[in-house]
Each structure stands twice: as C-alpha cells, then as structure tokens.
Amino acid sequence: MKTILAYGDSLTWGTNAAPGGPPRHAMADRWPGALAAGLGPGFEVIAEGLGGRTTAYDDHVADCDRNGARILPTILHSHRPVHLAILLLGTNDLKPAVAGSASAAFLGMKRCVEIVQKHSPRLPGFAGTKVLIVAPPAIVATADTFFTEMFAGGIAESRKLAGYYEALAAEMSCAFFDAGQVASASPFDGVHLDAANTRAIGTALVPIVRALLAD
Predict the structure, then answer these.
(1) Shortest CA distance to 198 belongs to which of 51, 21, 28?
(2) 184: domain range?
(3) Which of 56, 125, 142, 153 is deepest in the core (most CB within 10 A)?
C-alpha cells in the first residue's frame, strides 16, 4: 500500500464557490477523492485540506493555526511512512495581510519541501518521501468585492506561482504540476473551484502519481 498525503488549503478541502450551494463539494468531486478513485487499489490518499492554510505564514485573525509549515511535521509523522507528499498551497500567501507576493509563496513552499525531506523516515525497504509541488490555478476577476479586497493584487501575483514552483521543483529534485493547465478558478469569488474543475485536478494527477510511485 502506497500512502499519499494531499496537503493543501480550501482547494483541497473542497470549498464550493457557488452561492446558495453546499459549502463543500462531494468527496468524489474533491481532487484528493478523484485521485484516489483514479488510482484504485494499492493506494491510500490522505486528504489534509484546511481553508486559509498558508505555506509557512501566520494568519493572526484565523480561528486555528493556518501555518502549513508548522503543522506539517506532525501530519507526516502521524501517517508515516508517507510515500508521496502532494503540496498544493500558495494562494493564501498572496493576501496582503499574510505575505502578499508570489516570491513569499516560493520561499514558504521551499520551507515545506525542506520539512518533508527532513522528516522522511528511515525505514527498511522505504526509499523516502517523494514530493510533488502543485501550483494552484490563478486567481481571476470577480464581482465579489470582499474577495477582491482580500486578495488585492493577487491576480498578477498568482500568475507567477507556476514559474516559481517549477523552478523550485528543479532546485529541490521534486516533481511539478501546474493545476492551471486543467482547472480555472470560479468567477463567483475568483479563488475557489467548481466541482468539475477541482475534480479535473485529481484526474490529471493520476498518471503523474502512478509514475512517481512505480518503483
């Protein structure tokens, strides 16, 4: 059995952007669920998504710890050995009140990768935890003034994330995938995804994950 940690924010939790609908997409429509369904037997996908989670920054108005780097070691050890950690974070770093730039998200994601690599257990027959960095879909324009103000400047910065993360993956010997190739944020709030788009991410990751865990 290969264990896969899907570590992310509200895009992993499955937040539904559409007003009036359920707050969360069905399990089958969240990307970790779609990934698990596509992989089939022999794989366990642990969905660890938290709305508002950052790569490595504190959100001082949050109701719980949203600093992804701080809790990541605990989660890695809770599920050890983790064969693959999929890191889909960075959108919340773009909030001016948090960090406000793609370069900050790059540094935070680098810290998360370092943590995964440091906490990869040394066990007989275990080759170590691999890392797949996933760049989130870019933020888009929305008529929702609250989200527009919360992510002021975020559209331009979010478009830089894929380039930064691809370079980081090469530097840290990780795999990389740009979720913006298969999914787009909903104009309802400019950040979150509808069911089809979040499901598309999980489906697109299936062959990538299979190849990473083939040995």
Answers:
(1) 28
(2) 2-212
(3) 56
Rounded CA-CA distance 135/125 in Å is: 31
The three-state secondary structure class of 36 is helix
Degrees to nearest 5, angle at CA 65 with 59 and 66: 55
Residues, the chain: 215
pLDDT tens sequence for the chain (215 residues): 999 999 999 999 999 999 888 999 999 999 999 999 999 999 999 999 999 999 999 999 999 999 999 999 999 999 999 999 999 999 999 999 999 999 999 999 999 999 999 998 888 878 899 999 999 999 999 999 999 999 999 999 999 999 999 999 999 999 999 999 999 999 999 999 999 999 999 999 999 999 999 97
Which residues in 97-114 are b (16+ Cβ under 10 Å) and which e? ebbbbbebbbbbbbbbbe
Give the residue carrying structure tokens 């170590």. 128
CATH label of the domain that carries residue 178 = 3.40.50.1110
Neighbours of 80 (CB within 10 A): 14
Q: What are phi and psi of 43, to 5 degrees?
A: -135, 140
Pairing of the two strands 84-88 and 2-8: parallel
C-alpha span between 106 and 94 (Å, rounded): 11
C-alpha dihedral, 56 to 182 to 39 to 122, nearest 10°: -30
At 22, list the tokens: 């359920």
What was the pLDDT predicted at 202?
98
Give how many domains the chain has, as a whole number: 1
